[in-house]
Amino acid sequence: MSDKAKPSTKGVRNLGVSDRLLDAEICINGGVHRLPEVCANKKVADIGCGYGRNRKLVESVGGEWVGVEPFEGGAHTVTASAEDLPFKDESFDVVVMDAVFDHIPDVGAAISETARILNAGL
Prior knowledge:
This protein has 122 residues and is of the alpha/beta class.
């Protein structure tokens, strides 16, 4: 490989998962089964909620459920993109994002928005 063809690594740092983690509990796969426990009596943003399959579960344990979709999904959802959420800072106790990252154009922005709307006091 000629010097011209070699990729430059100047100023590049490899980031691992731990470098990008929020200061929050992140449940992947198995943790979804604890959803009733995690959402009990909490204000929950369900980003990428589809047609609201988690709504009944969250409300059945005393939680307040707010669904978010980028398209109009009905009266039970807020129409917004995950990268630009229309909520005040620290306005939710729990954020659920179940199988949505592959549908989000800018995952980094979506994670930043999720961190912004999560209540830091929990």
